[in-house]
Amino acid sequence: MRKPSSFAPYACFPEETRGRKLPEDESLTRSVFQRDRDRIIHSGAFRKLQYKTQVFVYHEGDYYRTRLTHSLEVAQIARSISRQLQLNEDLAEAVALAHDLGHTPFGHAGEDALKGAMEAYGGFDHNEQTFRILTQLEARYAAFDGLNLTWETLEGVAKHNGPVHVPRESMKLYCREFDLELDSHASAEAQVAALADDIAYVNHDLDDGLRAQLFAVSDLMDLPLLGKLFHRVRRTYPGIEQGRLIHEVIRRLIDAMVNDLLQETRLRLEQACPGNAGEIRALSRPVVAFSEEMRHDIEVLRGFLFQRMYRHYQVNRITSKARRVLKQLFDVYLEEPNCLPHDWQSKLDMSAGAGQRARIVADYVAGMTDRYALESHETLFNPYIRL
Q1: Using CA atoms, how far apart are residues 85 and 83, in angstroms rounded to an integer?
Q2: Is residue 386 part of a domain?
Q3: Are residues 255 and 374 in the same domain?
Q4: What is the 3-state secondary structure (H, E, C) of 39-63?
Q5: Could you tell me if 186 and 159 are in contact, meaning their C-beta atoms sit under 8 angstroms apart?
Q6: At what angle do helices 354-366 and 107-117 cross, to 10 degrees?
Q7: Cα–Cα distance, 104 to 301 (Å, whole number)
Q8: Contacts of 120 (CB under 8 A, 6+ apart)
Q9: What pLDDT is recorded for position 53?
Q10: 76 CB neighbour count, 10 Å cutoff
Q11: Which of 317, 341, 369 is the last residue of a domain?
Q12: Distance CA 62, CA 229 (A)
């Protein structure tokens, strides 16, 4: 456990936590944020991330990133940055590990499908779904639903992308009893987790896109940062094989992004002079940030990935299939709830409104892994499959 003296004054100190919605006796050997992290890691939703993919469906290949490996990469980057800034690494890690729990199977294609299906019933958003998992859907503890995480961890998950001015229903109802102050910025630790997410996904999507041969190294030579890095690695290691070349460039790109973030954040901290974590939240802008030049360069990389990877015809075929699978599953379960497993049928109150029933069906479908969604679809729609 880090000593309090090793934290900056604007870090989140575990002994100053605002507590849990349901008070508990705390651990004698772990801080409250370490305990939050451990609850997230041991949750069922976290284990499912192993079979939820980012861009590719799970059977496309074992080497591509999943939501689980992505979350671990984000957590590693967030811890490294937090240590350099003297922030609470455990809190940053907890937010990083939790941030993708609400993602559907099949990545953004699955989310698009559920957004369409739920449009008439209050909509669907993976950040809101993450919040529902952490506060309602995890059913493991005898005394409460959800994980009963600390105020700081829940605040970080809710606001890691910035203030939430128009919260969705679950978050709005929860905050009536345990106010997360959604209209302010999150802690510096949560802001670190958010940008660690950006660093991780840009870099691993470049890596996965090259491995899938959706684009080639030659296509990257004119992009900011990358061209110079490829030339530098080739000069240092003449004749280097392609796999090692890509890895060396990616690790240098991560390093460049992290160092830029550290430099810009230290500049902003020096200008703002926050005396505590509350003053971080009260600032008019995030304190953790990239420089303007790096933000521009990252947007160029995102634009490249959007055109050459996310909209590649091979990926389009995958996402088209994924959208159909989830939409058809949702429709069947909503129209014929007796096809749901018994424990999910028990959650349904048939006298309740259509919106409540649709939300429960969305919770069930969103919680599926890629593999389970495909197997369920096969069972329901292939007449030759034995039940």
Answers
A1: 5
A2: no
A3: no
A4: HHHCCHHHHHHHHCECCCCHHHCCC
A5: yes
A6: 170
A7: 25
A8: 358
A9: 82
A10: 14
A11: 317
A12: 28
* pLDDT tens track for 334-364: 999 999 999 999 988 766 788 999 999 999 9
For the segment 144-190, what is each residue's pLDDT rounded down to a tens digit? 999 999 999 999 999 989 999 999 999 999 999 999 999 999 999 99
What digits encode the pLDDT tens for the residues 32-41?
A: 999 999 999 9
Integer Cα distance of 135 and 176 in angstroms: 13
- 303 and 354 in a common domain: no
Domain residues for the domain of 49 are: 1-22+29-317
The type of residue at 217 is: V
Closest by alpha carbon to 31, among 150, 180, 200, 122? Answer: 150
∠ CA 225-228-232, nearest 5°, is: 130
Which residues on adjacent β-strands are paired with residue 66? 53
How many structural domains compose the chain?
A: 2
Q: Alpha-carbon torsion 273, 278, 282, 285, what sign?
A: positive
Q: How many CB atoms lie within 10 A of CB 268?
A: 16
Kindly tell me if the per-residue pLDDT of 62 is higher than 60.
no
What is the pTM for the complete model shown? Answer: 0.94
Number of residues in the chain: 387
Written as one letter, the residue type at 119 is: E
**Calpha distance 92→187 (Å, rounded):** 9
Query: Which single residue is written with the structure tokens 């004054």?
Result: 9
Coil, strand or helix: which one is 260? helix
Cβ-in-10-Å burial (0-12, 13-18, 19+) of 380 comes to middle
Pair (214, 300) in one structural domain: yes
Taken in order 183, 186, 190, 194, the sign of the CA dihedral is positive
C-beta of residue 167 within 8 angstroms of C-beta of residue 60: no
Report the alpha-carbon distance of residue 36 to residue 32 in Å, rounded.
6
